[in-house]
Amino acid sequence: MSYVTSGREFSRDERYLTTRITADGRDGFPVEPGRYRLVVSRACPWANRAIIVRRLLGLEEALPMAVAGPVHDERSWTFDLDPGGRDPVLGIERLQEAYFARDPGYDRGITVPAVVDVPTGQVVTNDFPQITLDLSLEWTAHHRPGAPALYPSELRAQIDSVNEAVYRDVNNGVYRAGFAGSQEAYERAYRRLFERLDRLSERLTGSRYLVGDTITEADVRLFTTLVRFDAVYHGHFKCNRHKLSEMPVLWDYARDLFQTPGFGDTIDFDHIKRHYYLVHTDINPTGIVPAGPDARSWLAPHGRAALGGRPFGDGTPPGPVPPGEAVPPGHNPLVREGSSPLMG
């Protein structure tokens, strides 16, 4: 499977299934607890957003989750982590089957996150930017007591502005560098990435969070790229002006979030590294997965609380990770053998 086209810059296929699951069901899919299944891979930064938001809002029971393995082929993500290699609820081996159930002629990306309608086995949506916003705005009847306001109305214009720049230059920017098919395309993406990271560092120097004094959707979206930076993007994608750990403000900011319940406890560094280094064979033909970096550095003190701010606003942290959803020990420094993830 090839991700790089010689002589061309990377262009992401953004033709998503944009059907929405809403409180009023206007697209034919009303919010109903237990009806849908959120399919993710812990390796994927776009899916990681949905995992974090679901956990922060306490939607684990209302929206059950299926976790695909970290490695896929040209056909699809697979449920190789489950007994018999099938999702126990959907009964399928490959996520591709749920896309084809929706549209037998489907010719776009088989992506995660995807929300599947369990009664029909069909994918409803894979529109990852909208999925997390709808979890905040449409699933409110099923939020846990104390759930934070991740997309408050008074801050939405600011959040949207930050998200647009972060997506263009950082979230997708690392891919535009890593999958560049020419030196010029690579250097263009590289410059935009680090110029944006410099601006974000300036913004976060005196502010604990990106918008306002609490965690918002903007922090979730930046975090999922930052947490993969040193493990993958710095070397594998040649985003190597500096490591994250060499950018003091962003490194402290990322560790602050990592140590916040709902963020770091969703991260599986083993899955992240195996996905990128094994799937992108045109970039890493040997298939060697790096042993480092040492993830224990994510637990070092960050000092960001001195900036003030209230992580969950008037709300409260999420409780322990539900049984069966914890990242395996050895894949995350927050998780110890025989225990649930530590609460920071």
Automatic annotation (TrEMBL):
Pfam families: GST_C_2 (PF13410), GST_N_2 (PF13409)
Domain GST C-terminal: 152-276
Protein keywords: Transferase
Site label Lowers pKa of active site Cys, positions: Y233, Y276
Feature: compositional bias, Pro residues: 317-326
CDD domains from the UniProt entry: GST_C_Omega_like
InterPro entries xrefs: Glutathione-S-Trfase_C-like, Glutathione-S-Trfase_C_sf, Glutathione_S-Trfase, Glutathione_S-Trfase_N, GST_Omega-like_C, GST_Omega/GSH, Thioredoxin-like_sf
Protein name: Glutathione S-transferase
Organism in which the protein naturally occurs: Streptomyces katrae
